[in-house]
Amino acid sequence: MRLTVRCAAASHVGMIRDTNQDRSIIVGDLVAVADGMGGHVGGEMAAELAVAQIAKAAEMAEPDGKVTADTLFELIKAANMSVVEKAEAPELNGMGTTLVAATLDSEAGNVLLANVGDSRAYLYSVGAFRQLTHDHSLVNELVREGRITEEESRTHPQRNILTRALGMSPDLAIDQFEIRVYGGDKLLLCSDGLTNEVDDPAIAAILARFSDPADAAETLVEKALEGGGRDNITVALMFVDGGEGEQLPLLNLDDIEGSDPGEPTEAHAPVFVSGDDTSEGPPIAEPAEMVIEKPPVRSRIRSALTALAVVAVLAFAYFVTESYAKDAWFADDVNGEVVILQGRPDGFLWVNPEESEATDIEVAELDGASLERLKSQPEWNSLDDARQFVSNLTTADETGS
Ligand code: MG
To answer: I need a labelling partner for 146 at 20 to 30 A (CA). Which of 140, 183, 250, 296 fits?
Structure first.
């Protein structure tokens, strides 16, 4: 018996925000969650654009409804481009969205996952519950580097900063991987509005309790609202059925509550998939560590534009440097005479001061105060100001000392 899935989703604006910038979509055996960001309108639009692209999975699927890794990759690339293009409008600048998607490959008995951002995918299986995706967020980088703890990351002031999202750049690295699933397994996709309010054991307990994904989805959202509902909350569930003879028994609810999320089981050891190559790689123990980043796909036009932009930036930097370096005048002792020079007294980068005009004042004739003023090398914004400064220098004769 082939595997089948039952999917359901639920979403709530939460207790504080006035718009829901999360979106979810179910297309056949594919589910996805997007969490938009960037302004009142932008976030909602970015998430909407992303799921609108994912909706095209229906047309791009194989005759049997299967969405291949390549198709999923293409859909996410297209979703990214549609957000990038819209974000060029000044009022939408900075908008972006997370996207996490899962689709069943019934024949292979696998679920294919793709992720960008900090929305998450979890697997509940035989009583064990674990995160499958790796957050593309600043706090997760800090946790991985051992600079903050998992606990500290939950309240860190920069916890909303993403290192990857749709809409940031045309070159998008997408984590894609597949995981073996069995009848009874339950996949959860969610925005951070769930995971910031409900801890792992509580989520696992709800997944254990319900056999209907719609009931479980509603209950998860309610639990997040009870927890405070400080963000939009969205969950999408994929419950796996079938796989004759492979149905794995669920553990009793008592075995889960209050316990840590379980370790990956051998049966679920994931294999990597890239967008172009679906050959199996070696199983790796920790799914969050085994994600494969797609090399950026960059067209020749884009490379040329980038090169042009670099040249323009360098030319501008050169112009600014030269302008700054030469936009000053000062007086100095040149071979015993007071001379007005253009430039900065010690030079600036590659630009050295140059003689602007000579005066007939001998440095040796200056009185003490004037000599001090000359040595302090004040800078003037114009040649006239520098001339004025020089004309105010007095000689020992003039002061009568
Ligand atoms: Mg959120």
So the answer is: 296
d(CA 138, ligand 1 centre) in Å: 15
Q: Nearest Cα to 73, choosing from 27, 115, 111, 135?
A: 115
- Whole-number Å distance, alpha carbon 137 to ligand 1 midpoint, is 12
Compute the distance from residue 21 Cα to the ligand 1 centre, in Å.
8
Single pTM value for the model:
0.64
Per-residue pLDDT tens over the stretch 203-212: 999 999 999 9
The CATH architecture that domain 4-322 belongs to is 4-Layer Sandwich (3.60)
Cα of 192 to ligand 1 centre, how many Å?
A: 5
Determine the distance separating the centroid of ligand 1 and the alpha carbon of 119, expressed in angstroms. 8
- Between the CA of 299 and the centroid of ligand 1 the distance, in Å, is 33
Partners of 104 in the β-ladder: 111
Q: How many Å apart are CA 30 and CA 40, to the nearest integer? A: 28
CA of 193 to the centre of ligand 1 (A): 5
For residue 320, give the amino acid letter.
V
User: Integer distance in angstroms from the first to the last C-alpha of the chain?
Assistant: 112
Compute the distance from residue 156 Cα to the ligand 1 centre, in Å. 15
pLDDT tens string 276-324: 333 333 333 333 333 333 334 445 667 778 888 888 888 888 888 888 8
Q: Which residues of 7-33 are buried (b: 16+ CB within 10 A; e: fewer)?
A: bbbbbbbbeebeebbbbbbbbebbbbb
What is the whole-number distance in angstroms between the Cα of residue 232 and the centre of ligand 1?
6
Distance 334 CA to ligand 1 centre (A): 67
CB neighbours of 114 closer than 8 A, spacing ≥ 6?
72, 73, 76, 99, 100, 101, 102, 174, 175, 176
Residues 6+ apart with CB under 8 A from 326: 342, 343, 351
Residue ranges of domains in the chain = 4-322, 329-399
Cα 194 to middle of ligand 1, angstroms: 8
